[in-house]
Amino acid sequence: MPTVFANHQYAIVGAGLMGRLLAVTLAKRGAKVELYEKGPPQGVDCAAHIAAAMLAPLAESAITEDNVVRMGIYSLARWRQLINELAKPVFFQQDGTLILWHRQDAGDAERFLAHLDHNSERNSSLPKAQRLDSQALAHLEPSVAERFGQGLYLPNEGQLDNRQLLEALLVELQLMKVSCHWNEAIDPEHLRTDAKRFDWVFDCRGLGAKKSWQDTQQLRGVRGEVIRLYAPEVKLHRPTRLIHPRYPIYIAPKEDDVYVVGATEIESEDLSPMSVRSAMELLSAVYTIHSGFAEARILEMATQCRPTLKDNLPAIVIDQAPNQSNLMKINGLYRHGFMISPAILDCALELMSTGDSKIALELGLCVGKHSSIQELSACA
Known about the structure:
- This protein has ten helices and 19 strands.
- It folds into two domains: about 10-50 and about 160-210 and about 310-375, 3-Layer(bba) Sandwich (FAD/NAD(P)-binding domain); about 95-155 and about 220-310, D-Amino Acid Oxidase, subunit A, domain 2 (D-Amino Acid Oxidase, Chain A, domain 2, 2-Layer Sandwich), CATH 3.30.9.
- Helix 1 (about 15-30) packs parallel to helix 6 (about 160-175), helix 1 packs across helix 9 (about 335-355) and helix 3 crosses helix 9 (about 335-355).
- The chain has about 375 residues and is of the alpha/beta class.
- The protein starts with 8 loop residues before the first strand and ends with a strand.
- The strands form three sheets. An eight-stranded mixed β-sheet has the order 9-2-1-10-17-16-18-19. It has an eight-stranded mixed β-sheet with strand order 6-7-5-12-13-14-11-15. The protein has a three-stranded antiparallel β-sheet with strand order 3-8-4.
């Protein structure tokens, strides 16, 4: 079906999660797309390759802003649609989130629940957390019932397999005949000087775009550390979070008995290997949840830095100048990339086609014009 994007030409710089989603979506709508990426097609250098890919707006509402939560709620439904349109299957699950805690952390658990209840009352789109006694917990997640006598269940939350998705989007790029320039670093400003070649140029480089955000909001990296385990003796059916004195630890079960474990959030752009302290805390915490993790095999210990703006919120900046292609910069998805990227995608499409975005206004996505985040069309 012809769309406003058909036969237009677009350049996208950065083939992480956002760049791939945008390239595939535009190509499916009839556009001619060129994708530039400084790394290889597997995406091993992008933050999305390391993520746990949990889609948990209620759980995140305890520690993040309302507009990010609204983007997460919006994106949950869109993820199912986007995945169903892909030729290669991607693991997607929407069986809720389990919250556990040890007896000494009961006070923190009550405060966490109070935050969730408050947020559910303020936002009717958020489900209400459900208390689980020992019997309900044993029915929902029997493998942890021996060690925990209570918990919380957050309905409707989901997750997907990040690496399967990156691979499926790569397959889609090939099927849609998107012109991909791998291992080629390029400045988006160089592409937009020839306005006759591209209608729009998109900067989706994440931390690679630090220089272009100096005049608006400081773009920085926030280090995260993740362990991937093969644990056939453990049978968790949904993402599980452990309330912890220093930070909430998560365990995201993927297919074939693989578990992604993480939590750390460090104000640093250090990409060196995982620290001993982080490894010990993560591994000892998961063992307290299920003894089967003692015999798990460590598949990978990985680190990556999430692109984060000054206010920890995502933003889109549009720069339009005479005799140049329009430039759209998308950045600052922070630790919520998978949770909110479909919302960012739809806002970007609206901005391109109409010059404005009702979705951005409703969700509270910051949109700046002429390289100035101070000129916002929407910011909650």
